[in-house]
Design a protein that fits this description.
Elements lengths: L15 H22 L6 H10 L12 H13 L3 H5 L1 H20 L2 H13 L1 H6 L6 H21 L2 H15 L10 H9 L1 H7 L2 H12 L2 H9 L3 H10 L8 H15 L1 H12 L6 H23 L10 H13 L6 H18 L1 H8 L16 H6 L2 H6 L4 E4 L2 H10 L8 E2 L9 H5 L9 E6 L4 H7 E15 L2 E13 L5 H4 L1
Parallel strand pairs: 1-2, 1-3
Antiparallel strand pairs: 3-5, 4-5
Helix pairs in contact: 1-5, 1-6, 2-3, 2-23, 5-6, 5-8, 6-18, 6-19, 8-9, 9-12, 10-11, 10-17, 15-16, 15-17, 16-18, 17-18
Length: 499
């Protein structure tokens, strides 16, 4: 692959890696400041994953184990503060950005590397996700690492690079099952390029794929022990059996990608790509990195549903491809315009309250992206006196959201809250690991967003409503929950027979 000639006379790229590191460090500490000072409290999925982290395992209800392991690591070192729970996310995205830089430098030149690194760091998806710990952070990091190792291995046939590609691939599979799409990059590349076909004839390529798959074996065994619950959940959220084909859903997904990657860069990449066939090996390889994930998730959106962030790994290829194309353009106007637009998206999200206050816009349910995060510490703390009064009562609920938030924000923290499920269908981690029917506890403080008194009398001999608390979040939305003291569990009709 011939590198594109670089304009070494430009002052901006006299020391490109220093500029890149300066941007990376600045954004890392800016985003950490946002998390700590705002503060960006835990989203309930994060509190939920924190409960996974208390018992590191080879699998969990809905995901492979990596996100739980990462949270277990950062909280073991720094404690359970919100920023510590989230810390692996900005660290992994920063690491992924460094790999993006080195990949672009290897495939093209330092100018392409600086541009690609900046595009990745300021991508709206990365700006948003850096504030939250999700499975996307390790998925994207190991995707970048595995791809970089593959291109090195393809050129050198070094055992070291093949081994690294296999290990990174295995860790990627333990991060999110979507990682299984990555090898299709090289299958598509084989269609487009003779060099790609040579890669498939190399036995080390297939050994590396097998090595990566071997990492998934403990997770598969865990799933076997739990009736393949992770795959059942994945099928359920896809709604493959119940959804109809929808062009409007597909178009909505595509339009959402403008916010994921940034409208300027996505439109530029598509227009540039459609204007000519891929000519260089670099173009063929990077389009192969983009298309499989984008197509698979587009089909998913058309057939059932797909969240806009699910196509995130496709934008590793898009980042490298856009950086490669822009490195051939004289000047920086288009690049700076795209970066500025993306930065404005992130800043508007980070400082949403300040922006709406400055514009005189009232934040309400339906208009505030932080709605699902706000007020939970204050809301839960309203219930603290009753938890202090009954310290020997176990936390229980009919909702994973309530178990996750109360488990984190109540004192002392309880990450193993007991779940009430009225049927044999398991819907979350708490129902899988801590079902009421198998709990050794006898007395519970049961919290619910619903009026549960009549229903709880079916399952407990003693039911007392202790309090109902509300927390007004907006003029049109108030959080409300009830806390019951229950004991003498009578069992759930039908479940004993099922078990």
């Amino acid at each position: 692959m011939s590198p594109v000639p670089s304009d070494s006379s430009s002052p901006l790229i006299a020391h490109p890696f220093r500029w890149f590191l300066a941007l990376l460090i600045l954004l890392f500490f800016y985003r950490e400041w946002i998390v700590i000072s705002s503060p960006i409290t835990l989203f309930y999925d994060e509190a939920y994953y924190l409960s996974w982290a208390q018992t590191p395992d080879w699998g969990y209800y809905s995901k492979p184990p990596m996100v739980g392991w990462l949270i277990a690591l950062t909280t073991a070192i720094f404690g359970n503060a919100e920023w510590a729970v989230k810390l692996a996310s900005p660290l992994l995205y920063s690491g992924a950005a460094i790999i993006i830089y080195r990949t672009a430098e290897h495939l093209a030149n330092s100018r392409a590397a600086l541009i690609s690194g900046a595009i990745f760091l300021l991508m709206p998806l990365i700006g948003f996700n850096s504030l939250f710990i999700t499975t996307d952070a390790p998925l994207i990091f190991f995707w970048c690492l595995c791809f970089y190792a593959f291109i090195q291995a393809k050129e050198t046939n070094s055992g070291y690079w093949w081994l690294l590609a296999g290990v990174a691939g295995g860790l990627g599979l333990l991060s999110k099952y979507t990682f299984i799409i990555l090898p299709s990059t090289f299958l598509l590349y084989a269609v487009l390029s003779p060099i790609g076909r040579q890669l498939l004839l190399n036995p080390r390529f297939w050994f590396t794929c097998l090595l990566a798959l071997s990492f998934l074996l403990p997770n598969l065994y865990w799933n076997y022990q739990h009736d393949f619950i992770s795959f059942q959940h994945t099928a359920e959220i896809s709604h493959q059996n119940s959804s109809s084909l929808s062009f409007s859903r597909l178009v909505e997904f595509w339009l959402g990608q403008l916010l994921v990657f940034g409208p300027v860069f996505l439109i530029y990449m598509i227009v540039r790509g459609l204007s000519r066939k891929p000519r260089s090996e670099t173009e063929k390889l990077l389009w192969s990195l983009f298309w499989p994930t984008f197509v698979v998730l587009s089909v998913q959106a058309f057939m059932a549903r797909a969240n806009v962030n699910w196509a995130g790994p496709a934008y590793i290829g898009a980042t490298l491809l856009t950086g490669y194309y822009l490195s051939q353009v004289k000047g920086y106007r288009l690049l700076l315009t795209g970066l500025l637009v993306n930065l404005l998206f992130s800043v508007s999200f980070y400082h949403y309250a300040a922006v709406t206050d400055a514009l005189g816009i009232e934040r309400k349910e339906g208009t505030d992206p932080y709605k699902r995060l706000l007020g939970w510490p204050q809301f839960v703390h309203q219930f603290q006196p009753w938890f202090d009064q009954y310290p020997d009562y176990k936390l229980a609920s009919d909702s994973r959201k309530m178990l996750a938030y109360f488990g984190y924000y109540i004192s002392p923290q309880d990450f193993k809250g007991v779940a009430l499920s009225e049927n044999a269908h398991i819907e979350d981690h708490y129902e899988l690991q801590y079902p009421l029917s198998k709990s050794t506890a006898k007395k519970f403080l049961f919290v619910s967003e619903h009026d549960m008194e009549a229903k709880l009398h079916r399952y407990f001999s003693d039911v007392t409503l202790l309090t109902e608390q509300s927390y007004p979040l907006y003029s049109n939305f108030t959080r409300t929950a009830r806390l019951y003291k229950v004991s003498d569990f009578k069992g759930i009709p039908g479940q004993q027979d099922h078990e």
